[in-house]
Amino acid sequence: MPHITVQMFPGRNDEIKKNLAEKLAKVASEELGRGIEHFSVSVEDIPQDEWKERVFNKIVDPDNKNIFVKPGYTM
């Protein structure tokens, strides 16, 4: 049921991505009180030159009420 999407710069191998995905699913499962089988996680590589437009501008938009942890960096 819940799906978690991670967006990040390219450069990490599939093993690192899989480990991250498994840990995120585990924490979410514990926090939400649902079995881990209910969770899915995807990892999307976003090229650095596309980050501001595709990701950053959306997450710092004050009207975006879906972002609960804002970045501590500026662009």
From TrEMBL:
Keywords: Isomerase. Residues 2-51 form the 4-oxalocrotonate tautomerase-like domain. InterPro entries: 4-OT-like_dom (IPR004370), Tautomerase/MIF_sf (IPR014347). The keyword Transmembrane helix does not apply. GO terms for molecular function: isomerase activity. The keyword ATP-binding does not apply. It comes from the Bacteria. This is 4-oxalocrotonate tautomerase. It comes from Treponema succinifaciens (strain ATCC 33096 / DSM 2489 / 6091).
